[in-house]
Write a structure and sequence with these properties.
This protein is of the alpha+beta class. The chain has 7 helices and 4 strands. It binds flavin mononucleotide (FMN). Flavin mononucleotide binds next to strand 3.
């Protein structure tokens, strides 16, 4: 992560109800990316972090499509798969990825109900690993899955989960329209008391302790 020397132009550390590892506390989803490329070595490290995620029965349903500005044609095709609103900021990211889930177990062909869950779990590890390298990540559900499928010849039995933008964080004011203000919005979360309960989810105000 940026570690002792935080170099990112805008930090939005979580206001926490319990102590957190710095990597988790500092992670957030900027939309402003600098022009510097993400090295192949860094991309490999990020993907390696995903590869080592836990998954149901070690099924490893995650697959990734990777496009960088080093290949302008491929990059343009990837960018075109983002929803127009997301393209406004995704275009600044030097690396665009798509997470794709294999929806059946390779061992027996049965449906894998955890495929998306495990892709998300891999992505969470990738985000933290990217932060540890001084990079930032913004995930986008606002993509056109059918376009991804067509453009990148995604086989039957796989579903496109989300887009992923990776790069170095840049000045929020480099973004167009309302995005600089959104970049500065506070990060909020529901209180832990509403999320974790000892007597079942219906028991309002139940603190598990
Ligand atoms: C699966 C998923 C889909 C998302 N889709 C979008 C999106 O389409 N556009 C966007 O600007 N942000 C998107 N986000 C970013 C979320 O809005 C962001 O993670 C959330 O507001 C929490 O902010 P934080 O990551 O900075 O803590 C997405 C995040 C995830 C995990």
């Amino acid at each position: 992560m940026n570690g002792d020397k935080i170099v990112n132009p805008l930090r939005k550390p979580a206001v926490t109800q319990a102590p957190l590892h710095e990597l988790v506390r500092e992670r957030w989803s900027p939309r402003s990316f600098a022009a510097d490329p993400v090295s192949t070595a860094d991309l490999r490290t990020i993907l390696e972090a995903g590869r080592w995620a836990a998954s149901t029965n070690n099924s490893q349903p995650w697959r990734w499509i990777v496009a960088t500005k080093d290949d302008p044609d491929l990059y343009a095709k990837a960018l075109a798969c983002f929803a127009p609103k997301n393209q406004r900021w995704a275009v600044t990211a030097p690396a665009l990825l798509f997470s794709v889930a294999r929806m059946t177990f390779e061992a027996n062909g049965k449906p894998n109900a955890y495929a998306w869950h495990d892709c998300g779990q891999a992505l969470a590890q990738m985000m933290l690993q990217a932060n540890a390298l001084g990079l930032v990540v913004h995930v986008a559900g606002g993509i056109e899955p059918d376009k991804v499928r067509e453009t990148f010849a995604t086989p039957a039995g796989y579903e496109v989960v989300c887009g992923i933008a990776i790069g170095r964080q840049a000045d929020p004011d480099a973004l167009p329209e309302e995005l600089p203000a959104r970049e500065r919005e506070a990060r909020t979360r529901k209180p832990l008391e509403q999320l974790a309960m000892g007597r079942g989810l219906g028991a309002a105000g139940d603190v598990f302790a």
